[in-house]
Amino acid sequence: MGNKWSLQQVKPQPGRVAIVTGANSGIGYEVALGLAKKDIEVILACRNGQKADEARAKIIDEYAGARVNCLLLDTSSLRSVEDFAAQFSAKHQTLDLLINNAGIMMSPYEVTEDGFENQLATNYLGHFALTGRLLPLMTRTPGSRIVTLSSLSYKWAEIQFGDFHAEKGYSRTKAYGQSKRACLMFAFELQHRLSAAGYDTRSVAAHPGLSKTNLDQYFPALIRPLGNLFLQPAQQGALSVLYAALDTAINGGEFVGPDGFQQMRGYPVVVDSDEYAKNRELAKRLWTASEFMTHVHFLS
Ligand SMILES: NC(=O)c1ccc[n+]([C@@H]2O[C@H](COP(=O)([O-])OP(=O)(O)OC[C@H]3O[C@@H](n4cnc5c(N)ncnc54)[C@H](OP(=O)(O)O)[C@@H]3O)[C@@H](O)[C@H]2O)c1
Fold first, then answer.
1. pLDDT tens digits for 253-278?
2. Which of 79, 214, 231, 239 best tests ligand 1's pocket when mutated (most atoms within 8 Å of CB)?
3. Residue 23 pLDDT more than 70?
4. Would you state the pLDDT for residue 2?
5. Residues 168-210: pLDDT tens digits?
6. Does residue 176 carry a catalytic annotation?
7. Is the pLDDT of residue 48 over 90?
8. Where does ligand 1 bind, in terms of residues with CB under 6 Å?
């Protein structure tokens, strides 16, 4: 406890460029706003153009100097990821920050156009493919960072290597847990591979504790208002992500979360994970399987 990190400690960073996936709502919106306030050019990578435009207008309303643009991205679709990366790369030579934030939680069973279980596709596989496609820009950008959103709920599940897509039986909680564990293991393994290849791009994992956002949209309507009693504001949860992205003391391969009771709320600090998440043999297996599923190969 005791690290009351805030955005005020960060100097303006004009000339830098960031992508935030799922930036129209919740944590992603607050992260995009925070980066924009530091004069970083922010690309709101969202699946809904209208919601993205509204978020952009809100950010500019809060900070008139904001440089914010929208580009369509549906992380549950490999085709959309490829299109997004091609459009972004056609306009930009560099990329300083990639915030792999978009997510859904405990959604009903659904198979995406690529044949993937939807939570794994949206939360993890889309971001794996996006990172691979944008990596050439990032490795040529000094001081670049990739922040991938995990969750306390990574502990809800292990990786189902024989049944990634829950074809043998679907549990909403286990599918969410698996996707967030995959995000965490990917962030760690990415750092190992970046270091081994001699790149200075850093990969960091972050989680926002328990924050009030739209993530509970699949919860029963009667339960949702209860969240207001104990969830921290999205702006506070977003500090973990902003700290992972901007603080100079953060090393690649670290995991950031809130410092309060059970990491549910508070100010950002480096936190630990369980041994499974740190197991490199499992992480390598996951990487190989992810390359096979997405057809995006990098650092291998
Ligand atoms: N809130 C928490 O307590 C908490 C805890 C742990 C981890 N997290 C993580 O934080 C991240 C952000 O979630 P949040 O809490 O801010 O929830 P949120 O308010 O529901 O925001 C999720 C964002 O992701 C977008 N999204 C969903 N599916 C997408 C897709 N297929 N393609 C592109 N964008 C998509 C949503 O867009 P639409 O508006 O179009 O749906 C929205 O912008 C997630 O990765 C989540 O797992 C949150």
1. 999 999 999 999 999 999 999 999 99
2. 214
3. yes
4. 57
5. 999 999 999 999 999 999 999 999 999 999 999 999 999 999 9
6. yes
7. yes
8. 21-22, 24-28, 46-48, 51, 73-76, 101-105, 122-123, 149, 151, 207-208, 210-211, 213-215, 237
Ligand 1 centre to CA of 196 (Å) is 31
- For residue 169, how far is its CA from the centre of ligand 1 (angstroms)? 24
Question: Looking at ligand 1, which residue's alpha carbon is closest to its atom 8?
Answer: 151
Cα 137 to middle of ligand 1, angstroms: 25
Minimum-distance ligand 1 atom for the alpha carbon of 102: 24
Catalytic residue among 124, 176, 199, 243: 176
C-alpha span between 184 and 177 (Å, rounded): 11
Catalogue all structural domains in the chain, each as residue range(s) with its CATH number. Answer: 11-293 (3.40.50.720)
C-alpha 57/C-alpha 244 separation (Å) is 26
Write out the DSSP string of the chain.
------GGGSPP-TT-EEEEETTTSHHHHHHHHHHHHTT-EEEEEES-HHHHHHHHHHHHHH-TT--EEEEE--TT-HHHHHHHHHHHHHH-S--SEEEE-----SPPP-B-TTS-BHHIIIIIIHHHHHHHHHHHHHHTSTT-EEEEE--GGGGG----TT-TT-TT---HHHHHHHHHHHHHHHHHHHHHHHHHTT---EEEEE---SEESGGGGGS-TTTGGGHHHHPEEHHHHHHHHHHHHH-TTPPTT-EEEE-SGGGSSSSEEEE---HHHH-HHHHHHHHHHHHHHH------
